[in-house]
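sorry for the late reply, my laptop died twice this morning and i had to redo everyting from scratch. anyway the thing you sent over, i finally got around to it. pasting the sequence first so we're on the same page, its 299 residues, then the predicted structure underneath. double check i copied it right bc i was rushing
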Amino acid sequence: MTRINEGLNTWRFKSNHNHMIDLQRAAATPAGGTVELAYFASSAFRIATPAGLTVLIDPWRNFPHGKWDWYFADIPRAAVDIAISTHAHFDHDALHLIDANVLLDRLIGTYQFADVTITGIADKHAINFSEAVYDAGKLIEAFSDARIAPPDNHRSWDNCIILVETAGIRILHWGDNRPNPPAEVWDAIGPVDIALLPVDDSRHVMGFAATQSIIDRLQPRIVVPHHYYIWDVVQRQSTLQLCEEWLTTQSNVRRLDGPATTYTRAALDALTDTPRIDFFGDHVAFDKAAWHAAIKAQS
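ok and here's the structure:
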């Protein structure tokens, strides 16, 4: 472990925050408009606001000891204005790999800039593996000294639910949060339009019943699944699976034909059959062919 050399390497980047200065100078930001949601595999999403601000949540990497790779390689570097991590697990915390002007690591509280308000709500990681293909909690307790059960859990078993508000739309990134947080967490979340929820057929984070309980409580107009297996991004040894079985439990599924989609307040208000499941499938918002070519060149 002593050979691991991690940390922020922003000093190496040749970019700058001129775009943020331009947004800072703007006299006013749009009250409405179109919001883009793009999927970067695993639990990573980019949100683009009407003003042109970009927010990337939960970039991923392989486990740093190199003995249990989940991905063919780390997430390719993306340039965004703000990068966020919900919790300190390798598949959510690769902020050092992102070319971002602002880093919000496990945000608790509120950050506001231009036409976005981002709120982080502190809670705990899911630890009930009773429906999972294998009991990850038992493995962790057997082969590490990590404490996962609250309230005395180690830091990596905390989680911050992230709420992004822009253009009158409230987008919630659940991270890997437990499905049954206390009442004050639900109160802090408030109404949600789009819920980004971890779900795969291995029930790695939580079971289908738990996922449905969150949907029933939030009553979002849109649910977007993440944290599932993608054959040319995620390796089989991750133990993640597809979410096709889960999709069969939902009555209104829209299979997206690309890695990005857009939303407006008016279009969300016009939906009559909710929640609608917007599923990205294998589509990701980076060039997978170029990514694999770079991996091959390094081998």
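Residues 57 and 84 are 5 Å apart (CA to CA).
thats about all i looked at so far, will dig more tmrw
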